[in-house]
Amino acid sequence: MKAFHENRFYHSSLPFTAYLSHNISFLAHWHNDLEFVTVIEGSLRMGINSESRLLSAGDIAVCGSGDIHYYESLDSDSLVLIVIFNPQMIGSPGGWPTGIRLATPFFDEAVLSSPENEAFHRLVSRLLHELLDEAKHRTEQYEMIVTGLAYQLCGTILRFARCEPADLKRDKRRMMSMRVMQGVLDYLDSHYAEVITLEDAARQANMSLFHFSRFFKSITGMSFTSYLNNIRLNKAEELILSTNLSMLEIALESGFTNVRTFNRVFRQLRGRTPSDLR
Fold this sequence. Notes:
With 278 residues, the chain is α+β, with helices and mostly antiparallel strands. The protein contains nine helices and eleven strands.
């Protein structure tokens, strides 16, 4: 995945996918596609735009077009159902929702446990599981049924959720921020194997250290150092699985100055040692 902005590709003519994921961790990114999540077991942290929640079994999250989101399962065990499709499938190629915004992208126990909201919770959960079932079996009239379920899912959420008019000025500021951050993350993707400091990244964004540090964490959900280390570990994992390089060589190619630091960071962020992958 290219850092931050993700151009999604599908394996069929229908721009849709649904799957179960164990212990998902994914760096902050955004795309035009819609992403719906419900926790089946355990818990994980998810961030969408400026909000971050610890989601537990039964909780639901909705990412509209352009929403910046990330997953983090470092300290917990989880199983989540994820449904993703392009808004063109429901007649909104420019994005969804149109002209409005969800007041909050999260529907957790505090909201869903009330008697008046139980019907909504049951319906959305059923729709998500039916979409997963269709993705697995792809039986006759699969595309028509998936499209109908997608319409019903989006309509149900808009009927239930508290929405606000789209703030064009705020959206414009957010797009400007995303362009700035995209430039920074492209820089990190290209130079992760070099010595990169917070000062270097702030200079790329043309910001002071103080403002850049806050700006970076508000968008990605993690500190600059943690994000950079995740990029380096992703590269290291690729090298461990696809080459016979020594751990020292992998550490150096991934941007770590020595094996000791590499092992410590790997254990801290992945919960195991690099050699466990071999």
